[in-house]
């Protein structure tokens, strides 16, 4: 094996492994898929053996690739404190907060409750339906629909989230609307799969909750959304009752070593307070307009 493997190539390897292909790694890093592909081939040549199984559906790791991934994750986690130490000398520390589209919009609309100019930290909203790796310092805080499961993570409950169907308020013939759904290949949340199991007519597919929301607002159909998202939009109306089987509990998850850091503790307390103040909205008890059946 060549001992001159660059850390930048290992970080690219990490992105390819975690996203399952070159396209996902390109979206994360800003590099082109072709460039990343060439660098992965070079990395395999340096390693002296294949690291990926390549298929039309994406990249999966070989046994050697899986072993390398575990080591690179450890290296990445160890590098985070070093970066924070160096960054602290030149810029305000950054807290990376991961959440789904609807939750991010809920928080962004109330940004002044989360952050103040003299806080001494900046916020980076990482909007994704995927679960980011807190244990290996991919993010600092994550809002999830289940509590922490690993021993090196800590969590606290935030509140009850409910879901309902929504349509555009301005549609003249709502009875003619089909449904707007997240396509199965991009559905990561139970709500994304639920609609495909109901036997309804799905007129439009999209790859994200943000796109579903935009399409529903435009009158393309009826879409399932968290009530905190749908009920906050005056352009939308309920198109049916709350879907109780999608009800979930959200939790704030963080690394156990970080929960006593003053900036993390302060932000976590503000997020918890924000959820407590909006219990009815989160639980679907404050629709802007009456329910339409």
TrEMBL record:
Keywords, comma-separated and alphabetical: DNA-binding, Transcription, Transcription regulation
Pfam family membership, one: HTH_1
Residues annotated as domain HTH lysR-type: 1-62
Signal peptide: none
Protein name: LysR family transcriptional regulator
GO molecular function, one term: DNA binding
Source organism superkingdom: Bacteria
Family, similarity comment: Belongs to the LysR transcriptional regulatory family.
Lineage, highest ranks first: Bacteria, Pseudomonadati, Pseudomonadota, Alphaproteobacteria, Rhodobacterales
